[in-house]
Structures are given as structure tokens and as C-alpha cells.
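User: Let's play a game. I give you a shape written as C-alpha cells, and you guess the letters that built it. Ready? Here's round one.
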């Protein structure tokens, strides 16, 4: 039973008692209290209806957001089910020793061991050994510059 239904029930009891509001002060107070309760019940019904509408809107927004997420990020389960073991290719950044241009290379170029620099056109081999030279001005690694 909703609050409005309960107030209507109490209003029915009040009306059934046949109290005269003009003659009895208590009857007048009870009648005014029933009017206030009726207004409160109506307002609560409006709040409930509004909350229901908001809930439906939030559900619709959530569905739309799920669609956008799927479009932007894809479906991870589908990618794993395809048997594609390499989902993401690794890239590395190296500087050309001839011109200093920063190049981005992938695993295939890394495995080949040589790079053709598109900036200067020179070919150079990739080396993963650290140089023994110091780092230069103000470096905190403790190595001294060798020249």
C-alpha cells in the first residue's frame, strides 16, 4: 500500500466518523493534517515516478556507453578466440648514429639487425651493448667522459 493509499484510507475513516469541522476544534485539526498528508503523499508519488524515469534514462545511457566502449576498445574475448597469439606488436625507438633522427622500429626490423634510415638514407646495424663512454655534462651515473 502506498502512502497516498494509506492517506486515502485515513480520510475515509475521518469522513465516516461524521465529525463537523465547524463545531469541533479537534476535527478541524485532523482535517488539516489529512490535507497535509495528502499533499505529502502526492509529492512522494511524483518523486517515485521521477526516480523511475531517471532509472530508465540511466539504463539507456549505460547501454549506449557499452556500445561505445565495444566500438572503441573492441571485444577482448573475440580477439582471444581468434587464436591470434600476438595481439599487440612491440615497437622500439632508436636514434640513427649518422644523423641522430629518432626512428621507431618493430620486432621484424629488430630481428633483421640492420636499419635503413629514411632521413639520411644510411644503413646501420643495431647494437644492444652499452657503450663504455660516460654520459656527458652533469650525468649522475658516475662514469667519466672518455674522449
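Assistant: Ready! My guess for every position:
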Amino acid at each position: 500500500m502506498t502512502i497516498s493509499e494509506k492517506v486515502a484510507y485515513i480520510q475515509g475513516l475521518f469522513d465516516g466518523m461524521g465529525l463537523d469541522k465547524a463545531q469541533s476544534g479537534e476535527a478541524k485539526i485532523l482535517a488539516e493534517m489529512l490535507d497535509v498528508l495528502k499533499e505529502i503523499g502526492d509529492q512522494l508519488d511524483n518523486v517515485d515516478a521521477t526516480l523511475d524515469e531517471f532509472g530508465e534514462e540511466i539504463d539507456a545511457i549505460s547501454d549506449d556507453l557499452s556500445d561505445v566502449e565495444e566500438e572503441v576498445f573492441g571485444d577482448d574475448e573475440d580477439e582471444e578466440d581468434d587464436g591470434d597469439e600476438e595481439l599487440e606488436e612491440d615497437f622500439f625507438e632508436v636514434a640513427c648514429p649518422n644523423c641522430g633522427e629518432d626512428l621507431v622500429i618493430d620486432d621484424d626490423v629488430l630481428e633483421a639487425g640492420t636499419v635503413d634510415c629514411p632521413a639520411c638514407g644510411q644503413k646501420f646495424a643495431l647494437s644492444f651493448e652499452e657503450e663504455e663512454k660516460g654520459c656527458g655534462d652533469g650525468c649522475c651515473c658516475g662514469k667519466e667522459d672518455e674522449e
